[in-house]
Write a structure and sequence with these properties.
Blueprint lengths: L14 H17 L8 H7 L9 H24 L1 H21 L3 H15 L2 H12 L5 H29 L4 H4 L2 H14 L4 H12 L6 H20 L12 H22 L13 H30 L5 H27 L4 H20 L7 H27 L7 H39 L7 H18 L2 H38 L1 H4 L17
Helix pairs in contact: 1-6, 1-7, 1-9, 3-4, 3-5, 3-11, 3-17, 4-5, 4-9, 6-7, 6-17, 7-14, 7-16, 11-12, 13-14, 13-16, 13-17, 13-19, 14-16, 15-16, 15-19, 17-19, 18-19
Length: about 525
């Protein structure tokens, strides 16, 4: 097997050893974005905190993580990518242990912020390392390996988190990061090296007086913190109906921060966030597709367990069993896609195929009812997740294919941020859709619940007779019959709200297809590296 070629240097290390080494910690970091979600009530109980307040455990991590993602390009260039990666991995591992030892909610939130700051550097550096280490014809296989951490980890997170919280204690949700973190730290210390062009860039930056872009940093923090808090708390605070104006303030902060960030960074001579990758139409289109695709994926990932547990009465274990096969099918899918990309198949056609599968899986769910069996619920999720897995590696190849090497670091950070923020937006979108559609369907169903509707009279008569036989109380049997019909109305309203959401996810998946045609031909040619001039 060939040795790794990294920006002109050829270390005596198998490139797949480097790929596995950098992916281990990334898998754990992505897992941490979802593993704590199902354990919030356990954490709140253990720390004597309100369950609504425990949501800051998730929000604080995501806000810190998102801010660092955008800074990773500059940090890698100035401190060295290897040094930055090892430091991030060390901070992530140590803060994971600190989270497990926390004994109050403010303490845990503080350590989660540190964990997010450390974990934010792992995804973009991993992807940048893979881009530099493998030639174009092997990028599909390399990005498929990275895709396992980005797609399978969020699927396994809720199931693993629920199992740990039910059978052990919530602290072990964080303690499990320690062994793989230490292993990854040791292996990466031994095998990871900076490419020659990054060494030259680092030397050039350090030869000049440091002009750190503090205003750009502040605008990044303002933008990402406002966005994460808004997405996390918007529905709870009733969005624009918030009587305290918190949502309006966050929206103003997001708008001013984003516009100010774009204007400032485009004019600054040494920006902390380099926006030049967006000038490449492949990167811009791939980033937008990744944002929407991950929004659909995470929205489905959140809504499906909620639907299974509230409407079908499944417990966390059964919900996990229905969700998990999708993650398992993603692994061979990404292996096949990696093989096809190595055979010079145009990435654009695979992306279209993945979008069609995402549409089909979501539409399949939208046509179901509450009488389906567990087995019938598994396959639509498998189809949808296979579609996401199919487009992940081609998107990564197409995004970086035409970028010059000096833009790979900033581009990797931006691309990772787009994926993560897409997931956050999708989660907020899914919860809001269900919450807002339930009253709509409840009002529509009321139109049929009146004494002039034959079906209502027939059902009401049957229920009254059944309850009368049980209780012998004619007045009580009528009350119980009305309550049973109202319960059925609420159940059906919720079911239709969930199905509406999946229908919309399918439409969004189809909307990705026209974006593919904005890209240039994206074929990994043999014998060259991405961005090679």
């Amino acid at each position: 097997m060939p040795e790794a070629r990294v920006g002109g240097s050829t270390p005596a290390v198998n490139p797949w050893i480097i790929a596995v080494a950098v992916t281990i910690a990334t898998f754990m970091e992505v897992l941490d974005t979802s593993i704590a979600n199902v354990a919030l009530r356990y954490i709140a109980g253990g720390l004597s905190a309100a369950e609504s307040d425990s949501e800051w455990i998730i929000t604080s991590y995501l806000a810190a993580n998102a801010s660092v993602l955008l800074l990773s390009g500059w940090l890698s260039a100035y401190f060295g990518r290897r040094n930055y990666y090892l430091a991030s991995l060390f901070i992530f591992t140590v803060s994971s242990a600190a989270c497990g030892f926390a004994r109050s909610l403010p303490e845990l939130v503080f350590f989660r912020i540190l964990q997010g700051l450390g974990g934010g550097g792992l995804q973009p550096v991993t992807q940048a390392v893979l881009v530099d280490t493998f030639p174009q014809e092997k990028q599909g296989a390399a990005q498929a390996l990275f895709g396992i951490s980005a797609l399978v980890a969020p699927v396994l997170g809720p199931t693993l988190g629920g199992y740990i919280a039910d059978n052990y204690s919530w602290e072990w949700i964080f303690f499990i990061n320690i062994p793989p973190g230490l292993l990854a730290l040791a292996v990466n210390y031994a095998v990871l090296r900076d490419p020659d062009y990054l060494k030259a860039e680092r030397a050039s930056m350090r030869s000049r007086p440091l002009r750190f872009d503090f205003i750009g940093l502040g605008l990044i923090v303002l933008t990402m913190a406002s966005m994460e808090i808004l997405l996390s708390k918007g529905q709870e605070w009733d969005w624009l109906g918030d009587p305290f104006g918190r949502v309006q303030i966050l929206m103003a902060g997001l708008g001013l921060g984003l516009v100010g960030l774009i204007v400032w960074e485009l004019r600054h001579p040494s920006p902390v966030l380099n926006l030049r990758p967006f000038l490449d139409r492949n990167f811009a289109a791939s980033g937008l597709i990744a944002y929407v695709a991950f929004a659909i994926t995470y929205a489905s990932m959140v809504l499906l367990p909620g639907m299974l547990q509230t409407l079908f009465g499944y417990n966390a274990v059964w919900s996990g069993l229905i969700m998990s096969p999708a993650g398992l099918f993603s692994i061979p899918t990404m292996a096949i896609v990696g093989y096809l990309l190595g055979k010079k198949v145009d990435s654009r056609w695979i992306i279209i195929f993945g979008a069609v599968l995402m549409w089909f899986g979501a539409s399949w769910y939208s046509r179901m009812n509450l009488d389906v069996s567990p087995g019938q619920l598994v396959w639509p999720r498998v189809v949808q997740q296979v579609g996401t897995a199919a487009l992940f590696a081609p998107l990564s190849v197409a995004a970086f294919l035409y970028l010059p090497k000096e833009l790979r670091g900033p581009a990797a950070g931006i691309f990772a941020a787009l994926r993560n923020e897409g997931g956050s937006a999708g989660t907020a979108m899914g919860n809001t859709l269900v919450t807002r559609r339930i009253p709509v369907h409840t009002d529509r169903l009321v139109e049929y619940l009146n004494p002039f509707h034959p079906a209502f009279n027939e059902t009401m008569g049957s229920l009254k007779a059944a309850f009368y036989r049980l209780t012998g109380d004619p007045v009580g049997s009528q009350t119980m019959a009305l309550q049973a019909i109202d319960n059925l109305r609420q159940q059906q309203s919720a079911a239709m709200a969930y199905l509406d959401s999946f229908w919309l996810f399918g439409i969004l998946a189809l909307a990705l297809i026209p974006l593919v045609f904005l890209m240039r031909r994206s074929v990994a040619e043999e014998g060259t590296h991405i961005g090679a001039e």
